[in-house]
Each structure stands twice: as structure tokens, then as C-alpha cells.
Amino acid sequence: MARLEVPATIAMAQRARALRGRGEEVLSLALGEPDFPTPAGVIEAAHRAALDGQTKYPPVEGTPALKAAIIRKFARENGLTYEPSEIMVSNGGKQVIFNAFMATLNPGDEVIVPSPYWVSYPLIISLFGGVPVFVDCPEDTGFRLGAAALEAAITPRTKWLVLNFPNNPTGATTTRADLEAIAEVLRRHPQVHVLSDEIYEHLVYDGKTHVSIAQVAPDLKPRVLTLNGVSKAYAMTGWRVGYVGGPAWLIRAMGSIQGSSTSGICSISQAASVAALDGPPGVVEVMRETYDRRRRMVVAALRQIPQLTCAMPQGAFYVYPGIAACIGRTSAGGRRLNTDEDFAIALLEEQHVAVVHGSAFGKGPYIRLSYATSDDILRDACGRIARFVAGLT
Ligand SMILES: Cc1ncc(COP(=O)(O)O)c(C=O)c1O
């Protein structure tokens, strides 16, 4: 347990909180949390559910009403057909990942994690004695996973491949052709299962549409877990509802784990999630358009800073600028920037802007900024980043 790290995203938020505790105003672009309120119709559904007496222990794997709404969602949006025995609701997408790896990993089993990656994957894999095997997704390919790099990383001990598109932290998306090439590799390695984390599915831009691997390669569906949740798309991070579709044998095993840990997920949150999934798509679209506008504003502002490089992300709500030209320099406050973590700490201490260093996601020297915050904060934060970089010597 002592070897388990605090995720860097949470560590940076804690630093920002400490600075705020000292009376400083801090602009936080560190956390991946929508700044929108949960849609009113969702909150009303929760209220009704509570008044209707939906306040008892729910079934471990999810209420029949939510499982039915999830089945409709997968059919409508992903062209995927699931039976109720192939669906499970968990305490956020994070518990889905925890259940899946606890159910399947033996010490020494390898899990391929394309890099950069969301910090929780390697932490959870390591918790169960698994070995994360990182595969580099280079910036010059749009941070996409190449089939040849995947093939080279697979060994007889590989049990899982994690796919996360749209991606946290880069905002990269994937294409049908990419997924077809990945599927072709996986067909040669029947021992490899796929955890496809599609939690940012609705947040794609520039006319892109999201594609699921189980849809592109239906023959692989029996070994794919398709993960999703209401946190990001519906601004429901605090309601703690994630869900997954996958083979019944694995869902059963994950249910056994959940039954002995948290049991079923908050009954009222589940009723709210039915309203979210069945609700009018316009609610998500308004948020998506706002993120899209902010994305273009932030990238344009960062591209004005000559020392930074900034790819245009096509999904999620993060930008991932490169800061190589700042490494080895000294900040106006006298801090030497040997790493991207030094950069993030100095930016926080000297300009009170919280971001997360890229090396925490497996790829430096970059920083990750979340634009799930107001236009004013984003404008102010980009100005401060520009001043910070201009002050480097
Ligand atoms: C890639 C990715 N997957 C899953 C999650 C988990 O979200 P939740 O547990 O709120 O459903 C997050 C949250 O930051 C994420 O970024």
C-alpha cells in the first residue's frame, strides 16, 4: 500500500487548495470536472424517485430501469446489442475498471496501456499485481495508437488492452480505420481482452463521430468491455454512476466483487441516470458546443506563446501543450525548470494557475489543461501562462 501513489491530478488539486487556504486566488485547470450544473430534468427525476420510495437497497448490478436505459443507449448510439446479464452499473467508471482488473488479473499479467494515459489505469493495474505495459502514442500521429506498436507490445502474458478515445489527457480521438487495424492485431492474440473506456464519447468536435471497437469488430465483442458513465457528458461527477457492457461471465465476476464491496449504486443516482440517458440530446449538445468554443479559444491563446506547441485536440475537454522549449530555463521567481513537474509547480506558485504535468500521464514535457471551466477563468489563466513563460530566462 505504501507504494501506491496519489494520482498526480489529485495531488495538484491539493496543492492548489493549500494555496487557496493561504488566501491566494488560484485558477484551477487541473481537474477533469464539468463546470456545468447537472441538468434540471435529471435532478427532478432524482427528487421524484426519492419521494416515490426508491430509497431501498438496489440490486448489486443495477436497477432494471437503468439497465434497460443503458441497453437502449448502447443500441441507439453505438449499434451494440446487450442482454441485461451483460450490463452492470458501478460507482463511477472508476469502479468498473477496478472490478474488471480485480476479477481477472493474476500477479505478472500484463495490461497494455497506450501512453499518454489516464493516471488511474496503471495505479489500479498495479494494485492487483498486474504489470502496465505502456505503448507510446506519438504527438505527430495525433496521439493515436498504431497497430504495429500494439503488436510489438503483446506477449503471451498480455491479458488486456486499454483503449481510451476520446482520450484523457490528450483529447485524441480514434477513427474507424485505426480501430479496424487494432482489431486485426487482436484477432491474432485471442488471450487479449479490451477495456474500451468511452466516457468522453459525446465530447467530439470538428464533425467527428465516435466509434466503438465492439461495433467496428463485432467478432471481438465477446472479449470487449465497453465502459461509459454519466459523469462527463451530463455533468454528473458527484452522482457516481458508471456502467459497462460486456460478456456475461465477466459481468458476473465483477458483480461478485461489487456485491462484497459497495453493493448496488445509490438508488436515487440510478433513477437520475435513467433521466440523463433517456433525456433530450440537446442538453449534451449545448455543453459540447460550449466546450468546443473554449477549446478553440484556449488553443488560439496558447499558440500565441512562441515557446509552446499546441496540437488541436478533437475530443474530451483537455489540451496538452508541449513545453520542451521551457525545460532547462529559470522562472522569474528563481525556480529552475528541469522537468514538466517543475514547470507546473512554479506556474502554480508564481502565477497561481493549476495544471497537471504531462509526465504524470506518461509523456513529458507537456502540461494538461482542462477547459471545463468558465471563459473568464480560461482567458485569465492563458494570460498568466503567457506571462510566466515570458519571464523565463
Ligand atoms: C478516462 C477516464 N475514464 C474514467 C473516468 C472515471 O470517471 P467516473 O468514475 O466519474 O465515472 C475518468 C475521470 O476522470 C476519466 O478521465
From TrEMBL:
One of its GO terms (biological process) is amino acid metabolic process. Its EC number is 2.6.1.-. Residues 25-385 form the Aminotransferase class I/classII large domain. One of its GO terms (molecular function) is L-aspartate:2-oxoglutarate aminotransferase activity. Its cofactor is pyridoxal 5'-phosphate. Pfam families: Aminotran_1_2 (PF00155). Keywords: Aminotransferase, Pyridoxal phosphate, Transferase. It catalyses: L-aspartate + 2-oxoglutarate = oxaloacetate + L-glutamate. It comes from the Bacteria. Homodimer. Belongs to the class-I pyridoxal-phosphate-dependent aminotransferase family. This is Aminotransferase. The lineage of its organism: Bacteria, Pseudomonadati, Pseudomonadota, Alphaproteobacteria, Acetobacterales.
